[in-house]
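Regression test attached.
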Amino acid sequence: MAGERLDEQTMAIRAAKEFQDGMIVNLGVGIPTFCSNFVAPEREVLFHSENGVIGFGPIIDNAEEADENLINAGVQPVSRKPGMAFMDHAESFCIIRGGHVDITVLGVVQVSEKGDLANYVVPGKQIGSFGGGQDLAFCAKKVIALTTFSTKEGGPKIVKECTQPITAPQCVDQIISDIAVLDVTPEGLVLREVAPGWTAEEVQALTEAKIIVPPDVEEMTLL
Amino acid sequence: MINKIVGSFDEAVADMVDGATVLIGGFGGAGECPSYLIAAVGRKGVKDLTIVGNTGGWGVDLLDILRQRMAVILNLPEDWYDPGLLVERGQVKKGILSFPAAPARILTPFERAVLAGGVEVELLGQGTLCERMRAAKGGIAAFYTPVGVGTIVEEGKEVREFNGRKHLLEHAIKSDFSLIRAHKADRYGNLVYRGTARTFNPVMAGASTVTVAEVDEVVELGELDPECIVTPGVYVQRVVVRPKEPRPWDEAM
């Protein structure tokens, strides 16, 4: 019997562990936005949001403190922070397209074993929305796909080939999920960590994509 | 004497004609959206517009729902009119957009219009969309970017390799009007913005034949600190001041 699947918040905590001191990080809409709440206190991480702000503070959850002129790319109000800077959209995308973003964390519809990312069309819809996600997927130094390993219906999200339209080919560097952490390498998907109670065989059983299992797979930790 | 202040929103878009290409500022929130200019285009009723911007808007009914749902975390103004208004009124024939589809199962007016037939969508990533407008503003005919290679964005575009990486040729977007939102202006058309309400607005300023800025306030010449002006007035042809109190979109003003 496999272990439990991590909840969204715990997945975000695991992803935030990747943020090193001094990094520029851009968070996609959905589960990734939670990551900003879990940066280790001794690290200064600057969050960039493509609508034109870098270095903002935590998300605000009440209308009294919220300012309609200070929102992130998910149109959520965020707070001011010393050192924060505003910019127009062209400048904001020079940051992204010029390769100045160290890590982007993006949501997922499907990721292939080659690192192709599909995430701009909601399954079942005919029209998609790239937003800033395509530029981030092509241009960030490291792309983390943060996702549940399976769909709500139990189908695979980590696949051999994407059947959904792709946002960017061969862009994902790392997959952080609710049951495992994998690296996308030229040889294929390499299992690095499993959630407590999970085995490599149980992870492999949930996807047709080939997972390479090195001898040193670790149990996922959050700190 | 230079004076770009015009007396009404209707006057500011009076010379817009059917078939115009219109850049519409904003990102997806209320604070950066040129609501009253959009409303004036709605009242004017020009048709077959190509709209260019981040989203195709939510439209009147979905914005009402959004206001109620968001009320706990953000007070959204009642005079927020977005490009969805023009889509719902059948004024739009094409959208060049980065976020036309709602990130959920609900459908925006623009999605419904495309699915019903007759309305065309050109989907682009935000960076390329933005750069195609900036190119128009700066007299650049076209540029190469690696973003979009191997996706639907590549269709029909020239591909060329630089430094071993494939790039797409993307052309400047020629447009007739830029409708933008700013915080303060002077009579030269110099503009400053507030917070994340800057977004696409300064990029669109000067990218069209006519740029119209909807502003909260007009100040005397010299009051805006020249070190802090974001959009120099050269890019702006008309400035209109927002009303102090919210007004319905269909009321002439």
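Expected vs. actual: identical. The mean pLDDT of chain B is 97.
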